[in-house]
Design goal:
The structure is a single chain. The protein is mostly helical and 492 residues long. The chain has 20 helices and two strands. It has one domain.
């Protein structure tokens, strides 16, 4: 099975949608689901092979570093799987949720597939310039989808996102130019192989530019101003994809740059500090919100800080725990946005106070929201308990006072997180609105099915975390072992 299909299928289906529109507008909405279902099957079929040995795909008929290559290892396949699963479930939810005239809906589905094709390309490519190209496909699709509803708030948020994203992309492109000027290659393995031949001072500027540019999409403080506005203005399906997928691609690219390309372990303490600040800023900001989607957006910022902190521990256990938290956040936050989507629609407001009594009026959606919240907080038996436990253990295993203090900060962040999520859950179940809300209906079956599937995933992995921990250890080993990455690309 050729891994390049993981990129080609969503990309090809995106361009097939307008052609299908000449035959049936109603069939267009099913195309993203079909494409992403194929990608789930492909990712699962590739996983056993890449656990034994990475697959290197050479494009153009030349050997590396002269060709563009894909590096398909455990990290690439596991991220491709997350992208496909979340994208597939959100696309099913969109069948009933996304409305509008046929032509506008067609654009939505095209951009949706392009976003996910870009995300998949980023995690599979072994060429730093193509990483930038796929990253741009993801970003440009995101800008357009945030403004999909055509409302003033959405267009304004998309414009802010565009400006900040464009600055970030420019910094990445400048960094790539500087690296090409010094190494004469764009192949990530080739750069990694020769990184020690260059004066470290000459590498500092491209490293900083890359991390800053990628930090915008990863929503790392202080580069996260776009996220709350984008979430509160975009359709809930796009909020789910931005939180569940897009910002994870930024953090993946940061990890690939630090560990694989530069081997820059000397900046890990700085990244830990950045992660702690992002965690606390995100959680404290979420606590003060009255808008449910802004609260969830700030919660995502806090979670990205936690993930950056875990990855920056720089051990197999730390990176595994960070990747586990990526799984947790992708599934749990997607569930939260999907559950909130129809509750917001029925309440006619984004205010948290407008959700009072929804536990009785929309019991299944409210239960799904509660399970997503419990998982993010880290309560057993949900998957968030396993990932947060692993992060705390990884910090304590370092065995010094700094990392013990960091473990305490993570617990403080968890307490703040629990406070604002329980505040919402209290309103869902223990408060009633004064006026009658007889017109409120449960979400349609098509929207409930992906929520139920996410609930099953969250509980299953929570009860049996060994389902993925072995794979995550292999992923951590890939990120840490630069020599094996170089050997795999160059054939020994």
């Amino acid at each position: 099975m050729n891994p390049v299909l993981l990129i080609v299928i969503p990309l090809g289906f995106a361009f097939f949608i307008p052609l299908l529109g000449f035959i049936s507008r109603k069939a267009e909405k099913f195309i993203p689901s079909l494409a992403l279902l194929i990608n789930i099957i492909l990712s699962l079929s590739l996983l056993p092979s890449v656990m034994r040995k990475p697959i290197i795909v050479l494009l153009g008929g030349f050997p590396p570093p002269f060709c563009i290559n894909l590096f398909v290892g455990p990290v690439g396949v596991i991220f491709s799987l997350i992208i496909a699963i979340v994208g597939f479930l959100v696309s099913i939810y969109a069948w009933s949720y996304i409305g509008g005239d046929g032509k506008r809906e067609e654009k939505y589905h095209m951009l949706y597939l392009l976003l996910l094709a870009g995300a998949t390309g980023v995690v599979l490519t072994g060429d730093i310039f193509n990483l930038f190209v796929f990253y741009e496909i993801l970003c440009i699709s995101s800008y357009a989808l945030v403004a999909y509803l055509g409302e003033k708030a959405g267009v304004e948020s998309a414009s802010k996102y565009l400006i900040q994203g464009s600055v970030g992309s420019t910094l990445i492109l400048i960094a790539i130019g500087l690296l090409y000027g010094q190494f004469g290659t764009l192949n990530m393995a080739d750069i990694a192989q020769n990184i020690n031949t260059i004066n470290p001072l000459h590498l500092f500027i491209p490293l900083v530019l890359l991390l800053t540019g990628l930090g915008v999409e990863a929503a790392i403080f202080p580069l996260n101003a776009w996220l709350p506005d984008a979430h509160s203005s975009a359709p809930s399906t796009i909020s789910a994809i931005l939180s569940g997928i897009a910002i994870k691609i930024g953090i993946y690219a940061m990890a690939r740059v630090v560990f694989t390309i530069f081997g820059a372990y000397q900046i890990l303490l700085f990244l830990i500090l950045l992660g702690v600040i992002t965690l606390l800023v995100g959680e404290l900001s979420a606590f003060s919100q009255n808008n449910i989607k802004r609260m969830l957006a700030y919660s995502s910022i806090g979670q990205m800080g936690l993930i950056l902190l875990a990855l920056s521990i720089g051990t197999v256990e730390g990176i595994s725990s960070g990747l586990f938290q990526i799984f947790t956040h992708a599934f749990s936050k997607s569930l939260l946005f999907l559950a909130a989507g129809y509750m917001i629609y029925q309440a006619g407001s984004l205010k948290i106070s407008s959700l009072e009594g929804m536990g009785k009026k929309m019991p299944l959606s409210s239960l799904a929201f509660s399970i997503g919240a419990f998982s993010l907080i880290g309560l057993p038996p949900f998957m968030g308990f396993g990932s947060k436990f692993m992060i705390i253990r990884s910090l304590l295993e370092k065995g010094n006072s700094l990392f013990t203090t960091l473990a305490g900060i993570v617990l403080v962040g968890t307490v703040i997180e629990g406070a604002y999520f329980f505040k919402v859950i209290q309103r869902l179940y223990f408060k009633e609105t004064a006026e009658s809300e007889g017109g409120v209906k449960e979400a349609p079956v098509g929207a409930l099915l992906p929520m139920i599937f996410l609930v099953v995933l969250i509980i299953s992995i929570g009860v049996y975390p060994k389902m993925i921990t072995g794979i995550l250890n292999s992923c951590a080993g890939e990120l840490l072992n630069r020599l094996e990455y170089i050997k795999a690309v160059f054939g020994g």
